[in-house]
Every structure is written in structure tokens, then in C-alpha cells.
Specification:
Layout (H helix, E strand, L loop, with lengths): L6 H26 L10 H55 L7 H21 L3 E2 L2 E2 L7 E5 L7 E5 L3 H8 L7 H54 L3 H26 L1 H7 L5
Antiparallel strand pairs: 1-2, 3-4
Helix pairs in contact: 1-6, 2-3, 2-5, 4-5
Amino acid sequence: MIINTNAAAEAAIYNLDKTNVNLKRSLTRLSSGLRINSALDDPGGLAMSLKLSASIRQTDAATTNLGNALSFLQTQDGVLKTAGDVLLRMSELATLASDNTITTSSDRALYDTEFTELEEQLTNLLLEEFNGISLFADPTATLPLRTSINGAQSIGITQVDLDNIVDSVTLLDVDTVANATTSLDVLDTAIQDLAILRATNGAEQSRVTFAQDILAVNRLNLEAANSQILDADLARESTNFVRSSILADAGVAMLAQANTMSDRALKLLEFD
């Protein structure tokens, strides 16, 4: 028996320190809900989690961009619908003005006045914008939009050519039967052309909506993968916490016992 070095106490302290480290780690994980709270916990897992987190953030940003694109297209469609209503009313006025049997010159003049006002309203529609971006421009020019986090996939939304339709009807009038008849033919063509623009807009809205669905599914999978790496398993950590708590209590008790061994050695030096 020796008193200069208490190896048993040193071993008990070493084991108790390790137990306290595990106990602290379990407490941190249980309180934060995260398995990885520092780079020390899992360096490789932390690096992977950071990459997945970046992908999730980029997916969220791409989803926001698609939402803005959908709003752009919906605004554009709203203006096209108004343009369609205007063209339908102009077509109605041209039909009324072309009737020789019941329409007087004064009535036809009133029709022509409204007809001219509607032409001006169509021209004003060309100035409509969404967040400072014109809704209508060269149909060959599209606004590119990323639909994936790596930039490999993109779609384009079209600034449709409403200007060409407006130009075709702005010089019309219905002040005579002949002019009303001619205007009606032009308006029929313009209405058909506008229907094509609205169909194009609807197709692009559909594509953007499906792109949003894909991003939503991708984000769900990224979140699940990141959770497997980053989040703590509360059932497992609760078990580890209880085990570490018991070991800590036992370690303190054994350290106390180890410290009494020197007292036993001193008894050998007692004299009567």
C-alpha cells in the first residue's frame, strides 16, 4: 500500500471526467434538439449539413423567384383579359354601327365616340408594368428564370406582343357603315390574336406552377436528409443522459472510496 500516488483515485477522476463530458453533450443535445452543436461533435456531418442547408436556402430563393414570375404572369393575364373585354365592346359597337336599317347618323356618331375612347384605353394598357418591368414587349425576348439550385434548369416568361394587336385597331373608326364593316373584320382578327396571347400566358403559368411543385418536393427531401445528419434522436439521447447520470453518481462514490485508501495505509504507521 502506498500514499504518495493514489492511482485508483486518478483512474476514478479520469472516468468521472469522461462521464461528465458525455453528460454535458447529452444535455446540450436534449436542450437544443440538435445532434451536432459544434464542429467537434461530427466534423464530416457538419460539413455535409452546411451543404444541405445552403441547398435548402437556394431552393427557397428559387421558389420565391417562381412566385414572383407567377405574379408577373397573372398580372399580365389580367391586363390581357381587360384588353379582350375592350376588343369585345369595340366589336359590339362596330356591329351596331354597321346596321343601315336602324342606326341613324347621330347614333353612329355616338358609337364612334365610344369606339375612339376605347382605342385610347387599349393604348394605355401597353404601359402597364409589374415591379417596374413592362408586361408587353418583343415576344422573342423572354425573362430567364432559374428553376433549380444549380442553375442547370431555367425557363423563360414572355413579355407578349400586345403592341401589334393594339396598332392594328387604333386607326379604326365606325363613323360610316363601310368603316364599321371594315373595323369589324379587323377586330375579329385582333380578338383571335389576343386569345393566342392568353393561351400562351396560361401555358407559362402552368409550367411555373409545376416548377414550384418540383422545388417543393426537392426541399422536402433536402430537409429530411439534413434532419438525419443534424437533428438529435431524443429517445437515444435521453437514454444516454440517464446512463451518464448514473455513471457520474457512481464515479463520485468510487472517487470517495479511492480517497479512503490512503487512510488505510496510514493506519500501518500507528503505534500504541
